[in-house]
Design a protein that fits this description.
The protein is α/β, with parallel strands linked by helices and about 475 residues long. The chain contains 15 helices and 21 strands. The strands form 6 sheets. The chain has a 6-stranded parallel beta sheet, with helices on both faces. A 5-stranded mixed β-barrel has the order 17-18-19-21-20. Strands 7-10-13 form a 3-stranded parallel beta sheet, sandwiched between helices. The protein is globular. The structure holds iron/sulfur cluster.
Length: about 475
Amino acid sequence: MERTNTERFMKNDTLLPLYNKDKPKSNPSNELPTAIPSHARRVYIETYGCQMNVSDSELMAGILTQNGHQTVPHLDDADVVLVNTCAIRENAETKVINRLVQLNHRKRRQPDLIIGVCGCMAQHLRDKLLDAAPYVDLVMGPDAYRDLPVALDSLARGVESHVSLTDRDPFVGLRLDKSEDYADIVPIRKEGIRAWLTIQRGCDKMCTFCIVPFVRGRERSLPLKFLVEDVEKLVDQGFKEVVLLGQTVNSYRDNGADFGDLLYAVGDVNGLERVRFTSPHPADATDSMIDAMASSPSVCKHLHLPLQSGSTEVLERMRRTYTAEAYRNLVSKLRERIPDIAITTDIIVGFCGETDAEFMETYQMMADIRYDSAFMFKYSEREGTLAHKVFPDDVPETVKGERLKQIIELQENISAAINRDTVGDTVAVLIEGESRRDADRYHGKTDGFKTAVFPKANTKIGDVVNVRVDTTTAHTLIGQTI
Ligand code: SF4
């Protein structure tokens, strides 16, 4: 199949500026083309994966809307569907391939439907994706979203010229661009309480198990000044909480300002109830970050601190750049400075060569640290990573499964016990919405990111209320407003 490229489609397109004129580009040389749409397209964006992808979908919606297209909430109303994908684990990619098969059935009934695959999986699989799903019209990686309007216009012209599906060239936009930060793009967000704000793109860490640096490129931070302005606007729009996003969010840097400086600056924005961030890297947890968490009232006392393994030998094979001892010391320091901090984590079991003894170090570390909660996974090999090239994936699936079961059981017991200890306490809860199980109750989050459920009484969504905890489960606090 012939592959096309961005330049080919740019030749005859009229260029329009696409940016918030009040906010200059971080990199003014990064001028990218946009096209006057021959027809406005109705675009349905379907998002898979992490919050970074949710934020990228909002960015894509912003780019499309500013170029005369419309995003729609239902697939039935769309003539373009963009599937924004995740590549972190194999089953995430399998899920998307299955979804594409379903979309192809729809395309048989609706031949002018444009199917696009965006995000990490597009960048990871490249040609293999088009081989597996030749009916896909557009493949676009995370640094090429400015080309979406040009791509849609070109593809739409193909549709209108009645070029048969098999003869139509897909649009492929897979450049990785270290200067692309989309600082000037205004994302389209759903109304709500919590807004996601990308402060940094890409990753320089190169953990051996991870595909992210290959699909999202090198690390780059957005200017602090713009970010503070963005937060001020989000508060004006009614958002109560902002979550700062980055692959290694606390390695943020802007002209001498570090992540701690950004936390202080955002925490000072008038009217903002809460600031959170995800995901920090333990090696970048500086005193400046800890100081800001300890002393800025609106910065939540919750840290999601990925451990991955409690064995220094495994951490070395993973190239995590810290030892088990350094991680334990960091947790001690955090708890000394911020006694009520909630700490959560990510764990991978069954990484290449993980022995029983190495696994037990992880188990023991979890038992000692007593995380509030954890995301736990079996290692899944990703083609293109260093681990895939140099280490055999040699822990049998049954052993991985057994280890995962053990730590899940451990963590459930710890989470349940930590939550039980809060019975009788009063916690501040930001109300997010109606409880799914009971229309007479609201649910919300505590400062430590625990879910609380309580009767509505005279409260409303967006309020911060005091809730006295009456009973708990491993995942929820249940109580009354006081
Ligand atoms: S820090 Fe490691 S795990 Fe996290 S995105 Fe970067 S390479 Fe992947």
